Amino acid sequence: MMVSFFDQFASPLYLGIPLIAIAITLPWVLYPTPSSRWINNRLITVQGWLINRFTNQLMLPLNMGGHKWALLLVSLMVFLITINMLGLLPYTFTPTTQLSLNMGFAVPLWLATVIIGMRNQPTVALGHLLPEGTPIPLIPVLIIIETISLFIRPLALGVRLTANLTAGHLLIQLIATAVFVLLPMMPTVAILTATVLFLLTLLEVAVAMIQSLCIRTPFKLYLQENV
Question: Is 14 helix (H, G, I), strand (E, B) or coil?
Answer without folding.
Answer: strand
